[in-house]
Amino acid sequence: MARKSVAIIGAGVSGLAAGKVLLEDGFNITIFDRHKTLGGIWSPDWAYIHQHTQTIANLMEFSNLHDTEAMDCAPWENIHNYLKRYANKFHLIERIRFETKIILIEKNDLKNGNLPWIVKVETANGDHETYQFDLIVVATGLFSTPEKPNFRGQNNFAGSIQHITNIKSEDQLKNKRVIVIGGAKSAIDMATLAAMHARSCHMVFSHSYWILPHKILHGYVPFDFGFTRILTNIFDPFPNAPHSAAFYFLHRVFSFVFTKISDSIANFLISKYKSDLFADEKFIPKESIRNPHNIMRITKEFLTMIRQNRIIRKLALIDEIVDKTTIRLDSGEFLQADLIICATGFIETFPFLSETLTKALVKNTTTSKSD
C-alpha cells in the first residue's frame, strides 16, 4: 500500500513536531515554509533583536532531545539552534521546502476522503507549482501575521512606524525618540532595549498586567515550577479546555478558597512593586490575576529603567499623530517621537485557504495579543 502523503504548512515548533511523528508513523511528508530557515518566531527572519524566552532552562525542549544550550530566558538564537538540531536528528531538514509561499489550499469535496487536497505554492524565484496531498497539517501558529494598527494622521509622521518583528538592530533605535505601543512581554523587551540605546522611550498601553517575579523564596525557586504545577489550579477554567472533573468540582465548591489565594498573591505583588511599577495606582491591574492572560514577567533591567525614568509609561491610546513628530494621546498628553514600534500582537489568519474551506473550517479569526 502506498504511503499517504502529508503537506505540513510551517517549519516552526509545531510543524517540526508534527513532521517527526508523521514521518516515524510511515507518512510521506513535505514541509513548506515561506522563510529562508526553520524556527518560525525563533528564526532570524522573524525574531526581533534580543528576543528571548521567559522561562527557566529546559522548559522549552522536546522530551526526545535534550537542549545542551539550555539557559534561563534563553535568546532566540539558542532556540533556533536547538530546533535545527532537532530537525537534523529526525531527518526533517531534507523534507523542508524553504522560501515557498502557500498560495492556495483547496479540496473539491470535503466529505470525499478519496479526493486529494490541492496545494498551490509560489517558489523563491516566482514560479507557481501545484501539488496533491492526502492530508494537510496547518502549523502556521498564532504569530504569522503581524497586527499593526493604523493611526489617525499617520501620514503626517516624518518618522517610521514599525512592527516589533522588523526591529533587528540596536542601530535602528540610536538617537531616536521611541514610543513602544503595548505593555506585554515583547513590549517590555523592546522598551528596555530602547531605554538603553534610544534618546528617550515611552511605553503607551491600554492594559496593565500583573507582574510576576522570575524566582521566589529569596531567589532560590523559579516561579515556573509553581505555574507548571499546583499554582495552575488557582486559575479560572479555560472555556472548552480538557480540565478534569475534580478541577471543575473544586472551582465550583471551593471558589472562595481560590479567590482568597489569588487576592493574597495580588496584594503581595502590589506590595512588592509598590515603589516601582505601582507607585501610581492607575497602573494596578483592574482584571483578575486568576486569568493567566493578565499575567506578565519582567526583567531586572526593565525595573532598573523604570527606576531611572528612562522608560516613561502612559496608560493611554494614541489618539492622533498631529504633525511630523507630535503624537497626541487620548489622555490629552503630547509626546515627541521619531520611531513608533508596535508590539501589538498578531492576527490569526489563514489566507491560503479557499473561500469554501475558510467557511467550513475556520469559525472566526482572532487577534493573538503579545503587546
UniProtKB/TrEMBL annotation:
Family matches, as Pfam families: FMO-like
Keywords: FAD, Flavoprotein, NADP, Oxidoreductase
Molecular function per GO: flavin adenine dinucleotide binding; N,N-dimethylaniline monooxygenase activity; NADP binding
Keyword Oxidoreductase: yes
Superkingdom of the source species: Eukaryota
Oxidoreductase found in the keyword field: yes
InterPro entries hit by this protein: FAD/NAD-bd_sf, Flavin_mOase, Flavin_mOase-like, FMO-like
PANTHER family linked to this entry: DIMETHYLANILINE MONOOXYGENASE
Family as reported in the entry's similarity comment: Belongs to the FMO family.
Listed name of the protein: Flavin-containing monooxygenase
